[in-house]
């Protein structure tokens, strides 16, 4: 059964996955980029940016695992870009340049319709205006039996968590304080019953936690 | 200089240090006791309850360190007991029986005055009605140059954090989801500048994080 999976979601000690005041200049909010240093120290993380070298230990294994068995991605509009409201034109095609690191169909949740955009390397951005369940259904169909990866941002992950649709949630706790920003976990009394958390795995300066949905 | 220290503050993955619906039956809120299993697996944690045996590794070292150099404790009324409002009588003397595991003066923050209570083994409960700064000043004086330990509950720790008075904050992340309850970190934009977090230390199924206040 095709799963919906979140990977490498990095959280500060005070519970934020992005800092405050997100903008074009600070897409992860002020200080938010400090969360992700661990990932760009790994071989897989560097390769994602077109670089070489990097560590090949536990952290790298987690990054690699995030791509295995994934046939499509769903993301929120904030992860796709900083543009708000109706699309002024079709110029913005994501943060990732002409060849995004997906290589498969990506479904972007938005309230504003837009034609699909085909990028280099197999990534095609589709814009879904009829809600998260529809986006997931379309992603599942496009993945052809493989899993669907849920990107971000925080609001999109919260939305799918609240709908009970996330099967696998890999959270990384970084020894960083952000003070304010976007949380991933909002009060949800049934969360404790719906998910179980594996024992923590020590990485290189971060801690990996994997939540999986309990069988219904 | 006498420090104000928090130790063994255990937080769920979703950021709660106590579950929802705290009561006499569930002093740590529903499910909250699941947070503390790691501590009662250690030698020091068992000894606290009058027991024997237990592990002697990283987790035990952190529990032991929580008591070293401490000459007084400050706690909120919720940590002292479930009684709310004016004290109906002087019957309630804490959760810990006739010989509490403190062995030094304990200052309980409350809005309702009450005479001090001397327990067995050196613990004396004092009730402070003029606020957290006064409680800390009295505890520092009673500690005679030693450090002051800040107990709980969550609201009391939040209060001292907001006042910038906590010097050392040992947080333990347990692979538990509570869904709802009491958070320790509320949005506080300056927290990121006031504290730094050491790299995580892997315990036995939990992760230790130590925050220290940056020099002013």
Automatic annotation (TrEMBL), chains A, B:
<dbReference type="InterPro" id="IPR002734">
    <property type="entry name" value="RibDG_C"/>
</dbReference>
<dbReference type="InterPro" id="IPR024072">
    <property type="entry name" value="DHFR-like_dom_sf"/>
</dbReference>
<keyword id="KW-0238">DNA-binding</keyword>
<dbReference type="GO" id="GO:0003677">
    <property type="term" value="F:DNA binding"/>
</dbReference>
<dbReference type="GO" id="GO:0008703">
    <property type="term" value="F:5-amino-6-(5-phosphoribosylamino)uracil reductase activity"/>
</dbReference>
<feature type="domain" description="Bacterial bifunctional deaminase-reductase C-terminal">
    <location>
        <begin position="8"/>
        <end position="192"/>
    </location>
</feature>
<dbReference type="Pfam" id="PF01872">
    <property type="entry name" value="RibD_C"/>
</dbReference>
<dbReference type="InterPro" id="IPR050765">
    <property type="entry name" value="Riboflavin_Biosynth_HTPR"/>
</dbReference>
<protein>
    <submittedName>
        <fullName>DNA-binding protein</fullName>
    </submittedName>
</protein>
<dbReference type="GO" id="GO:0009231">
    <property type="term" value="P:riboflavin biosynthetic process"/>
</dbReference>
